[in-house]
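Example: Solute carrier family 22 member 15.
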Amino acid sequence: MDLDEAFRTVGEFGLYQKQALAIVVLAQVYMASQSMLIVLVGFTPHYHVEQQQQVPSGAQGLVQKVVFTEDVDSIVTEWFLIKQQAYKVSLAGSLFFAGLLVGNVVLGPLSDKVGRRPVYLSGLFLEVVFGYVTALAPSYEVFAVSRLLVGLMNGGIGVVSFVLSQEYVGKSYWAMTGTLTSLGFAVGIALFAALGYMIPPWRNLAMAANSFGLLSFLLSVTLPESPRWLYCQGQMERAEQVLHHMALRNGNAVTNLMLQRDAAATKVSKPKRGQPGLLQLALHPVLRIRTVVLMYVWYSCSLVYYGLTLGAGDSTGSRYVNVAMYGLVEVPAYPLCMYFINKHWAGRRKSMSGFLCLSGSACFCTVLIPANGACGQLSGSVLSVTLLALVGKLMVSAAFNIAYIYTSELYPTVIRNAGLGVCSMSCRVGGIIAPFVPSMRAVHSSVPFTVFCLSGLSAGCLGLLLPETLDAAAAETLDQL
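Written out as C-alpha coordinates, the predicted fold is:
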Protein backbone atom coordinates (compact mmCIF):
# COMPACT_ATOMS: atom_id res chain seq x y z
CA MET A 1 0.00 0.00 0.00
CA ASP A 2 1.04 3.62 -0.42
CA LEU A 3 1.62 5.90 2.54
CA ASP A 4 -1.80 7.56 2.60
CA GLU A 5 -3.49 4.15 2.53
CA ALA A 6 -1.20 3.00 5.33
CA PHE A 7 -2.29 5.93 7.51
CA ARG A 8 -5.93 5.08 6.88
CA THR A 9 -5.17 1.53 8.01
CA VAL A 10 -3.30 2.36 11.22
CA GLY A 11 -5.50 5.38 12.03
CA GLU A 12 -5.09 8.87 10.60
CA PHE A 13 -5.55 10.60 13.96
CA GLY A 14 -5.72 7.97 16.64
CA LEU A 15 -4.84 8.07 20.33
CA TYR A 16 -1.10 7.87 19.67
CA GLN A 17 -1.13 10.76 17.23
CA LYS A 18 -3.15 12.85 19.68
CA GLN A 19 -0.56 12.25 22.38
CA ALA A 20 2.28 13.13 20.00
CA LEU A 21 0.48 16.30 18.92
CA ALA A 22 -0.03 17.32 22.56
CA ILE A 23 3.75 17.10 23.08
CA VAL A 24 4.42 19.20 19.98
CA VAL A 25 1.85 21.81 21.08
CA LEU A 26 3.55 22.00 24.50
CA ALA A 27 6.77 22.84 22.67
CA GLN A 28 4.90 25.67 20.92
CA VAL A 29 3.86 27.04 24.33
CA TYR A 30 7.52 27.05 25.36
CA MET A 31 8.66 28.71 22.14
CA ALA A 32 6.02 31.42 22.58
CA SER A 33 7.33 32.23 26.06
CA GLN A 34 10.87 32.54 24.71
CA SER A 35 9.67 34.79 21.88
CA MET A 36 7.93 37.17 24.31
CA LEU A 37 10.54 37.00 27.09
CA ILE A 38 12.22 40.32 26.31
CA VAL A 39 8.87 42.16 26.53
CA LEU A 40 8.65 41.49 30.28
CA VAL A 41 12.27 41.03 31.39
CA GLY A 42 13.30 44.09 29.37
CA PHE A 43 10.62 46.37 30.81
CA THR A 44 11.85 49.90 31.60
CA PRO A 45 10.14 51.40 34.69
CA HIS A 46 9.83 55.12 35.36
CA TYR A 47 12.92 56.68 36.88
CA HIS A 48 14.56 59.96 37.65
CA VAL A 49 18.12 61.07 38.18
CA GLU A 50 19.12 62.72 41.45
CA GLN A 51 22.16 64.92 41.87
CA GLN A 52 24.01 64.03 45.06
CA GLN A 53 26.87 65.95 46.58
CA GLN A 54 29.83 63.84 47.58
CA VAL A 55 33.35 64.51 48.78
CA PRO A 56 35.47 61.62 47.50
CA SER A 57 39.18 61.78 48.46
CA GLY A 58 38.91 65.36 49.62
CA ALA A 59 37.57 66.64 46.28
CA GLN A 60 34.04 68.00 46.12
CA GLY A 61 31.83 66.96 43.20
CA LEU A 62 28.34 66.01 42.01
CA VAL A 63 27.34 62.38 41.57
CA GLN A 64 24.24 61.26 39.67
CA LYS A 65 22.04 58.61 41.22
CA VAL A 66 19.35 56.80 39.22
CA VAL A 67 16.18 56.18 41.22
CA PHE A 68 13.50 53.84 39.79
CA THR A 69 10.07 54.94 40.97
CA GLU A 70 8.45 51.55 40.31
CA ASP A 71 9.13 48.29 42.13
CA VAL A 72 10.24 46.36 39.05
CA ASP A 73 12.97 43.76 38.68
CA SER A 74 14.21 43.58 35.09
CA ILE A 75 17.44 43.59 33.13
CA VAL A 76 17.01 47.37 32.90
CA THR A 77 17.05 47.87 36.67
CA GLU A 78 19.82 45.31 37.23
CA TRP A 79 22.26 46.57 34.58
CA PHE A 80 20.97 50.18 34.35
CA LEU A 81 20.06 49.98 30.67
CA ILE A 82 18.82 53.55 30.41
CA LYS A 83 19.70 56.64 28.40
CA GLN A 84 22.77 55.82 26.28
CA GLN A 85 22.48 52.14 27.28
CA ALA A 86 18.76 51.81 26.53
CA TYR A 87 19.41 50.50 23.02
CA LYS A 88 20.72 47.25 24.52
CA VAL A 89 17.19 46.11 25.34
CA SER A 90 16.12 46.41 21.70
CA LEU A 91 19.42 44.88 20.64
CA ALA A 92 18.72 41.75 22.70
CA GLY A 93 15.33 41.45 21.01
CA SER A 94 16.89 41.96 17.59
CA LEU A 95 19.50 39.29 18.28
CA PHE A 96 16.72 36.82 19.11
CA PHE A 97 14.97 37.49 15.79
CA ALA A 98 18.28 37.34 13.94
CA GLY A 99 18.76 33.89 15.47
CA LEU A 100 15.27 32.93 14.30
CA LEU A 101 16.16 33.87 10.75
CA VAL A 102 19.37 31.82 10.74
CA GLY A 103 17.68 28.86 12.44
CA ASN A 104 14.93 28.77 9.83
CA VAL A 105 17.45 28.59 7.00
CA VAL A 106 19.95 26.17 8.59
CA LEU A 107 18.01 23.69 10.72
CA GLY A 108 15.00 23.36 8.40
CA PRO A 109 16.93 21.95 5.43
CA LEU A 110 19.13 19.95 7.81
CA SER A 111 16.11 18.00 9.02
CA ASP A 112 15.33 17.10 5.40
CA LYS A 113 18.73 15.40 5.22
CA VAL A 114 19.34 13.81 8.63
CA GLY A 115 15.76 13.42 9.85
CA ARG A 116 13.11 15.36 11.75
CA ARG A 117 13.58 13.73 15.15
CA PRO A 118 17.35 14.25 15.70
CA VAL A 119 17.18 17.92 14.65
CA TYR A 120 14.07 18.53 16.75
CA LEU A 121 15.43 16.87 19.90
CA SER A 122 18.92 18.39 19.69
CA GLY A 123 17.50 21.86 18.92
CA LEU A 124 15.01 21.69 21.79
CA PHE A 125 17.68 20.46 24.21
CA LEU A 126 20.08 23.26 23.26
CA GLU A 127 17.33 25.87 23.49
CA VAL A 128 16.57 24.75 27.04
CA VAL A 129 20.27 24.90 27.92
CA PHE A 130 20.69 28.39 26.46
CA GLY A 131 17.44 29.41 28.15
CA TYR A 132 18.97 28.61 31.53
CA VAL A 133 22.05 30.59 30.51
CA THR A 134 19.71 33.54 29.92
CA ALA A 135 18.24 33.21 33.41
CA LEU A 136 21.67 32.91 35.08
CA ALA A 137 23.55 35.42 32.91
CA PRO A 138 26.11 37.30 35.05
CA SER A 139 26.30 40.20 32.60
CA TYR A 140 24.39 41.79 29.75
CA GLU A 141 26.88 40.46 27.19
CA VAL A 142 26.20 36.85 28.23
CA PHE A 143 22.47 37.58 28.24
CA ALA A 144 22.58 38.99 24.70
CA VAL A 145 24.58 36.08 23.29
CA SER A 146 22.25 33.58 24.95
CA ARG A 147 19.24 35.30 23.33
CA LEU A 148 20.89 34.93 19.93
CA LEU A 149 21.47 31.21 20.53
CA VAL A 150 17.97 30.66 21.92
CA GLY A 151 16.55 32.33 18.81
CA LEU A 152 18.71 30.15 16.58
CA MET A 153 17.31 26.98 18.13
CA ASN A 154 13.78 28.39 18.39
CA GLY A 155 13.64 29.24 14.68
CA GLY A 156 14.81 25.78 13.66
CA ILE A 157 12.61 23.63 15.87
CA GLY A 158 9.63 25.88 15.17
CA VAL A 159 9.66 24.76 11.55
CA VAL A 160 10.46 21.12 12.35
CA SER A 161 7.79 20.81 15.05
CA PHE A 162 5.16 22.17 12.66
CA VAL A 163 6.19 19.64 10.01
CA LEU A 164 6.12 16.81 12.56
CA SER A 165 2.61 17.76 13.65
CA GLN A 166 1.47 17.10 10.09
CA GLU A 167 3.62 14.14 9.10
CA TYR A 168 2.44 12.11 12.11
CA VAL A 169 -1.18 12.15 10.87
CA GLY A 170 -3.15 11.47 7.71
CA LYS A 171 -3.36 14.26 5.16
CA SER A 172 -7.02 14.92 5.88
CA TYR A 173 -6.00 16.14 9.35
CA TRP A 174 -3.13 18.40 8.27
CA ALA A 175 -5.21 21.57 8.45
CA MET A 176 -6.41 20.77 11.96
CA THR A 177 -3.00 19.83 13.41
CA GLY A 178 -1.35 22.84 11.79
CA THR A 179 -4.00 25.10 13.28
CA LEU A 180 -3.59 23.55 16.74
CA THR A 181 0.15 24.25 16.74
CA SER A 182 -0.52 27.90 15.84
CA LEU A 183 -3.19 28.04 18.53
CA GLY A 184 -0.69 26.61 21.02
CA PHE A 185 1.69 29.47 20.25
CA ALA A 186 -1.05 32.07 20.79
CA VAL A 187 -2.14 30.48 24.07
CA GLY A 188 1.53 30.28 25.10
CA ILE A 189 1.81 34.07 24.83
CA ALA A 190 -1.17 34.51 27.17
CA LEU A 191 0.17 31.90 29.62
CA PHE A 192 3.53 33.64 29.68
CA ALA A 193 1.79 36.91 30.59
CA ALA A 194 0.04 35.15 33.49
CA LEU A 195 3.34 33.60 34.57
CA GLY A 196 5.01 37.02 34.48
CA TYR A 197 2.24 38.46 36.67
CA MET A 198 2.74 35.71 39.28
CA ILE A 199 6.57 35.75 39.13
CA PRO A 200 7.75 39.35 38.63
CA PRO A 201 11.55 38.95 39.23
CA TRP A 202 13.04 38.55 35.78
CA ARG A 203 15.49 35.75 36.61
CA ASN A 204 12.80 33.69 38.34
CA LEU A 205 10.46 34.33 35.40
CA ALA A 206 13.08 33.17 32.89
CA MET A 207 13.71 30.03 34.95
CA ALA A 208 9.98 29.26 35.26
CA ALA A 209 9.34 29.83 31.55
CA ASN A 210 12.20 27.51 30.71
CA SER A 211 10.57 24.73 32.73
CA PHE A 212 8.04 24.36 29.89
CA GLY A 213 10.93 23.54 27.59
CA LEU A 214 12.47 21.02 29.98
CA LEU A 215 9.14 19.21 30.35
CA SER A 216 8.61 19.31 26.59
CA PHE A 217 12.06 17.83 25.93
CA LEU A 218 11.55 14.97 28.39
CA LEU A 219 8.24 14.11 26.74
CA SER A 220 9.60 14.56 23.20
CA VAL A 221 12.16 11.79 23.73
CA THR A 222 9.26 9.36 23.25
CA LEU A 223 8.39 10.75 19.80
CA PRO A 224 9.25 8.57 16.76
CA GLU A 225 10.80 9.63 13.49
CA SER A 226 8.41 10.86 10.83
CA PRO A 227 7.17 7.88 8.81
CA ARG A 228 6.74 10.14 5.78
CA TRP A 229 10.39 11.21 5.94
CA LEU A 230 11.52 7.58 6.33
CA TYR A 231 9.38 6.57 3.37
CA CYS A 232 10.73 9.24 1.05
CA GLN A 233 14.28 8.33 2.10
CA GLY A 234 13.69 4.74 1.05
CA GLN A 235 13.87 3.39 4.63
CA MET A 236 10.78 1.22 4.19
CA GLU A 237 11.46 -1.14 7.10
CA ARG A 238 11.82 1.69 9.63
CA ALA A 239 8.73 3.42 8.23
CA GLU A 240 6.74 0.19 8.61
CA GLN A 241 7.98 -0.21 12.18
CA VAL A 242 6.78 3.28 13.10
CA LEU A 243 3.42 2.66 11.45
CA HIS A 244 3.05 -0.70 13.22
CA HIS A 245 3.78 1.02 16.53
CA MET A 246 1.18 3.69 15.77
CA ALA A 247 -1.40 1.04 14.91
CA LEU A 248 -0.67 -0.85 18.15
CA ARG A 249 -1.01 2.29 20.29
CA ASN A 250 -4.18 3.26 18.41
CA GLY A 251 -5.72 -0.13 19.17
CA ASN A 252 -5.82 -1.27 15.54
CA ALA A 253 -4.83 -4.88 14.85
CA VAL A 254 -2.59 -4.56 11.79
CA THR A 255 -0.62 -7.73 11.10
CA ASN A 256 0.55 -7.38 7.52
CA LEU A 257 1.41 -3.78 6.68
CA MET A 258 3.76 -3.44 3.73
CA LEU A 259 4.57 -0.22 1.91
CA GLN A 260 5.09 -0.01 -1.82
CA ARG A 261 8.71 -0.55 -2.87
CA ASP A 262 8.81 1.99 -5.67
CA ALA A 263 12.42 1.96 -6.81
CA ALA A 264 12.02 5.03 -8.98
CA ALA A 265 10.46 7.05 -6.18
CA THR A 266 13.10 5.89 -3.72
CA LYS A 267 15.87 6.91 -6.07
CA VAL A 268 14.44 10.33 -6.79
CA SER A 269 13.50 10.98 -3.18
CA LYS A 270 17.12 11.51 -2.22
CA PRO A 271 18.62 14.83 -3.33
CA LYS A 272 21.04 14.58 -6.18
CA ARG A 273 24.69 15.24 -5.56
CA GLY A 274 25.62 18.86 -5.95
CA GLN A 275 21.97 19.92 -5.47
CA PRO A 276 21.31 20.72 -1.82
CA GLY A 277 17.73 21.29 -0.74
CA LEU A 278 17.88 25.09 -0.87
CA LEU A 279 19.31 25.04 -4.40
CA GLN A 280 16.47 22.86 -5.63
CA LEU A 281 14.02 25.58 -4.62
CA ALA A 282 15.64 27.82 -7.24
CA LEU A 283 16.41 25.22 -9.93
CA HIS A 284 13.17 23.25 -10.05
CA PRO A 285 10.74 25.16 -12.32
CA VAL A 286 7.63 24.38 -10.26
CA LEU A 287 9.30 24.99 -6.91
CA ARG A 288 10.86 28.24 -8.11
CA ILE A 289 7.50 29.87 -8.89
CA ARG A 290 5.88 28.59 -5.70
CA THR A 291 8.80 29.73 -3.54
CA VAL A 292 8.84 33.28 -4.93
CA VAL A 293 5.09 33.70 -4.39
CA LEU A 294 5.12 32.11 -0.93
CA MET A 295 8.11 34.16 0.24
CA TYR A 296 6.26 37.38 -0.59
CA VAL A 297 3.06 36.10 1.04
CA TRP A 298 4.92 35.20 4.25
CA TYR A 299 6.79 38.51 4.20
CA SER A 300 3.55 40.46 3.83
CA CYS A 301 1.78 38.42 6.53
CA SER A 302 4.59 39.18 8.97
CA LEU A 303 4.81 42.86 8.02
CA VAL A 304 1.07 43.44 8.43
CA TYR A 305 0.77 41.22 11.53
CA TYR A 306 3.55 42.87 13.55
CA GLY A 307 2.82 46.31 12.13
CA LEU A 308 -0.84 46.17 13.19
CA THR A 309 0.20 44.83 16.59
CA LEU A 310 2.30 47.94 17.15
CA GLY A 311 -0.43 50.20 15.80
CA ALA A 312 -3.38 48.65 17.63
CA GLY A 313 -1.70 47.84 20.92
CA ASP A 314 -2.18 50.28 23.80
CA SER A 315 1.16 51.23 25.33
CA THR A 316 -0.53 52.31 28.57
CA GLY A 317 -2.04 50.05 31.20
CA SER A 318 -0.80 46.76 32.56
CA ARG A 319 1.96 45.27 30.46
CA TYR A 320 0.75 41.79 31.46
CA VAL A 321 -2.71 42.48 30.05
CA ASN A 322 -1.17 43.88 26.86
CA VAL A 323 0.94 40.76 26.34
CA ALA A 324 -2.05 38.49 27.06
CA MET A 325 -4.24 40.34 24.55
CA TYR A 326 -1.41 40.10 22.02
CA GLY A 327 -1.94 36.35 22.05
CA LEU A 328 -5.66 36.02 22.75
CA VAL A 329 -6.71 38.31 19.90
CA GLU A 330 -5.47 35.61 17.52
CA VAL A 331 -7.56 32.79 18.98
CA PRO A 332 -10.80 33.50 17.03
CA ALA A 333 -8.83 33.45 13.78
CA TYR A 334 -8.09 29.73 13.95
CA PRO A 335 -11.62 28.25 13.99
CA LEU A 336 -12.50 30.84 11.37
CA CYS A 337 -9.82 29.71 8.93
CA MET A 338 -10.47 26.03 9.75
CA TYR A 339 -14.04 26.46 8.59
CA PHE A 340 -13.15 28.03 5.26
CA ILE A 341 -10.11 26.01 4.18
CA ASN A 342 -12.05 22.74 4.29
CA LYS A 343 -14.91 24.03 2.11
CA HIS A 344 -14.63 23.17 -1.57
CA TRP A 345 -15.90 26.60 -2.60
CA ALA A 346 -13.10 28.27 -0.65
CA GLY A 347 -10.18 25.90 -0.05
CA ARG A 348 -6.64 26.90 0.92
CA ARG A 349 -5.87 29.26 -1.95
CA LYS A 350 -9.00 31.41 -1.93
CA SER A 351 -9.17 31.50 1.88
CA MET A 352 -5.60 32.71 2.29
CA SER A 353 -5.97 35.32 -0.44
CA GLY A 354 -9.36 36.40 0.87
CA PHE A 355 -8.16 36.93 4.44
CA LEU A 356 -5.13 38.89 3.19
CA CYS A 357 -7.37 41.13 1.06
CA LEU A 358 -9.77 41.64 3.98
CA SER A 359 -6.85 42.63 6.19
CA GLY A 360 -5.67 45.11 3.57
CA SER A 361 -9.20 46.45 3.19
CA ALA A 362 -9.50 47.00 6.95
CA CYS A 363 -6.27 49.00 6.84
CA PHE A 364 -7.62 50.99 3.90
CA CYS A 365 -10.76 51.88 5.87
CA THR A 366 -8.64 53.40 8.65
CA VAL A 367 -7.21 55.82 6.08
CA LEU A 368 -10.74 57.09 5.35
CA ILE A 369 -11.38 58.08 8.97
CA PRO A 370 -10.84 61.86 9.26
CA ALA A 371 -8.70 63.50 11.92
CA ASN A 372 -9.97 66.24 14.20
CA GLY A 373 -7.44 68.93 13.39
CA ALA A 374 -4.51 69.48 15.69
CA CYS A 375 -6.28 67.72 18.55
CA GLY A 376 -5.99 64.37 16.83
CA GLN A 377 -8.81 62.04 16.04
CA LEU A 378 -12.28 62.12 17.56
CA SER A 379 -12.89 59.67 20.39
CA GLY A 380 -15.28 57.73 18.19
CA SER A 381 -12.77 57.75 15.37
CA VAL A 382 -10.04 56.49 17.68
CA LEU A 383 -12.29 53.61 18.67
CA SER A 384 -13.02 52.91 15.01
CA VAL A 385 -9.34 52.92 14.09
CA THR A 386 -8.58 50.53 16.96
CA LEU A 387 -11.40 48.19 15.99
CA LEU A 388 -10.41 48.24 12.33
CA ALA A 389 -6.79 47.57 13.23
CA LEU A 390 -7.83 44.63 15.41
CA VAL A 391 -10.05 43.31 12.62
CA GLY A 392 -7.08 43.61 10.30
CA LYS A 393 -4.91 41.67 12.72
CA LEU A 394 -7.59 39.01 13.12
CA MET A 395 -7.74 38.58 9.35
CA VAL A 396 -3.98 38.50 8.85
CA SER A 397 -3.63 35.99 11.73
CA ALA A 398 -6.01 33.67 9.89
CA ALA A 399 -4.08 34.19 6.64
CA PHE A 400 -0.79 33.52 8.44
CA ASN A 401 -2.10 30.24 9.83
CA ILE A 402 -3.35 29.14 6.41
CA ALA A 403 0.03 30.08 4.91
CA TYR A 404 1.73 27.57 7.24
CA ILE A 405 -0.70 24.78 6.32
CA TYR A 406 -0.80 25.65 2.63
CA THR A 407 2.98 25.89 2.31
CA SER A 408 3.56 22.47 3.85
CA GLU A 409 1.12 20.99 1.32
CA LEU A 410 2.70 22.75 -1.65
CA TYR A 411 6.17 21.31 -0.99
CA PRO A 412 6.95 17.57 -1.31
CA THR A 413 8.23 15.69 1.73
CA VAL A 414 11.84 15.56 0.52
CA ILE A 415 12.15 19.33 0.57
CA ARG A 416 9.29 20.46 2.82
CA ASN A 417 11.44 21.75 5.67
CA ALA A 418 13.72 23.60 3.26
CA GLY A 419 10.72 25.36 1.72
CA LEU A 420 9.24 26.23 5.10
CA GLY A 421 12.65 27.46 6.27
CA VAL A 422 13.08 29.86 3.34
CA CYS A 423 9.52 31.16 3.74
CA SER A 424 10.11 31.64 7.46
CA MET A 425 13.28 33.56 6.63
CA SER A 426 11.31 36.05 4.53
CA CYS A 427 8.77 36.16 7.35
CA ARG A 428 11.50 37.28 9.79
CA VAL A 429 12.57 40.01 7.37
CA GLY A 430 9.02 41.34 7.42
CA GLY A 431 9.02 41.26 11.22
CA ILE A 432 12.29 43.21 11.36
CA ILE A 433 10.98 45.90 9.00
CA ALA A 434 7.55 46.24 10.65
CA PRO A 435 8.65 48.42 13.63
CA PHE A 436 10.01 51.04 11.23
CA VAL A 437 6.75 51.49 9.32
CA PRO A 438 4.97 53.56 12.03
CA SER A 439 7.78 56.14 11.80
CA MET A 440 6.52 56.88 8.27
CA ARG A 441 3.79 58.97 9.90
CA ALA A 442 6.33 61.80 9.57
CA VAL A 443 5.47 61.85 5.86
CA HIS A 444 1.69 61.59 6.38
CA SER A 445 -0.50 60.08 9.08
CA SER A 446 -2.04 57.63 6.59
CA VAL A 447 1.21 56.24 5.19
CA PRO A 448 1.69 53.31 7.66
CA PHE A 449 -1.82 51.93 7.09
CA THR A 450 -1.40 52.51 3.35
CA VAL A 451 1.72 50.33 3.44
CA PHE A 452 -0.17 47.59 5.30
CA CYS A 453 -3.11 47.93 2.91
CA LEU A 454 -0.98 47.57 -0.23
CA SER A 455 0.99 44.70 1.28
CA GLY A 456 -2.12 42.73 2.19
CA LEU A 457 -3.91 43.35 -1.10
CA SER A 458 -0.86 42.59 -3.28
CA ALA A 459 -0.04 39.39 -1.37
CA GLY A 460 -3.67 38.30 -1.58
CA CYS A 461 -3.77 38.77 -5.35
CA LEU A 462 -0.39 37.11 -5.86
CA GLY A 463 -1.48 34.10 -3.79
CA LEU A 464 -4.12 33.30 -6.41
CA LEU A 465 -1.30 32.14 -8.71
CA LEU A 466 -0.76 29.07 -6.51
CA PRO A 467 -2.57 25.75 -7.08
CA GLU A 468 -5.29 24.46 -4.76
CA THR A 469 -4.26 21.54 -2.49
CA LEU A 470 -7.59 20.68 -0.84
CA ASP A 471 -8.21 16.90 -1.21
CA ALA A 472 -5.11 16.59 -3.43
CA ALA A 473 -2.64 13.76 -2.81
CA ALA A 474 0.42 14.77 -0.81
CA ALA A 475 3.57 14.88 -2.95
CA GLU A 476 6.43 12.82 -1.51
CA THR A 477 9.06 13.31 -4.27
CA LEU A 478 10.02 15.99 -6.76
CA ASP A 479 8.76 13.90 -9.69
CA GLN A 480 5.26 13.93 -8.26
CA LEU A 481 5.08 17.70 -8.72
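Strands lie at 47-54, 61-68.
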